[in-house]
Amino acid sequence: MSDETIFEGGCLCGAIRYRATAEPLRGVICHCGMCRRHSGAPALAFVHFPATAFTWSGTEPTWFRSSANAERGFCARCGSTLAMREAVLADRVQVCVGSLDEPDRVRIDDHVWTRSRIAWFDTRDTLPRFSRNSTAVASQATGDD
Fold first, then answer.
1. For residue range 113-126, what is the model confidence (pLDDT) as tens digits?
2. Nearest-angstrom CA–CA distance, 48 and 27
3. H helices within 6-92, ranges in order?
4. Do 18 and 95 meet the contact criterion of CB atoms below 8 Å apart?
5. Distance, CA of 126 to CA of 109 (rounded, Å)
6. Which tens digit of pLDDT belongs to each residue from 70-107?
7. Do residues 83 and 16 touch, judged by C-beta distance below 8 A?
8. For residue 5, what are the contacts with CB-CB under 8 A and spacing of at least 6?
9. Burial status of residue 42 (CB atoms within 10 A of its CB: 0-12, 13-18, 19 or more)
10. What is the per-residue pLDDT across 18-57, written as a single tens digit (0 to 9) for each?
């Protein structure tokens, strides 16, 4: 394994660290209301890593059930937004791009839940946009609240 396939990150205080030893499966920018509330930002970027190539070190995140189908992970000590997990995507770990040590190394594939985008927040890229879920992965999300 080369250093190029190792991705590391963690929370603001350093209590939670993680390591992925495989290339990301995909990256997404989500504009839904739950992601905005979870992050305090106008949108939240996630990158998906295979669960078999991912490990938490130090303290594991605290998980909050944000809907019937998803949980959001954060550091209980410093409050950093770190991850999301969905039962339908149990084969992967979704981490927040901003928690990576080197976020420039990952790619974003598309924008989802754009129907909930804040009007004044407009990114100038050519990535595909989906008013709800992307067609690239299964999802059980039914709303954006």
1. 999 999 999 888 87
2. 6
3. 33-39
4. yes
5. 10
6. 999 999 999 999 999 998 899 999 999 999 999 999 99
7. no
8. 21, 22, 23
9. middle
10. 999 999 999 999 999 999 999 999 999 999 999 999 999 9
Q: Please give the sequence-ordered ranges of beta strands (E in DSSP) within 39-142, or none if there are none.
A: 44-50, 54-58, 62-65, 70-74, 81-86, 92-96, 110-112
Q: Which residues contact 26 (CB under 8 A, 6 or more apart)?
A: 47, 48, 109, 136, 137
Ranges of H-type helices in 32-136: 33-39
Residue carrying structure tokens 């949108």: 43
- What gap in Å lies between CA 130 and CA 114, rounded to an integer? 6
How are the residues of the chain apportioned to helix, strand and coil, as percentages rounded to the nearest 5? 15, 35, 50
Q: Is the dihedral of CA 95, 98, 99, 103 positive or negative?
A: positive
HSE value, Cβ hemisphere, 13 Å, CA-based, for 28: 25
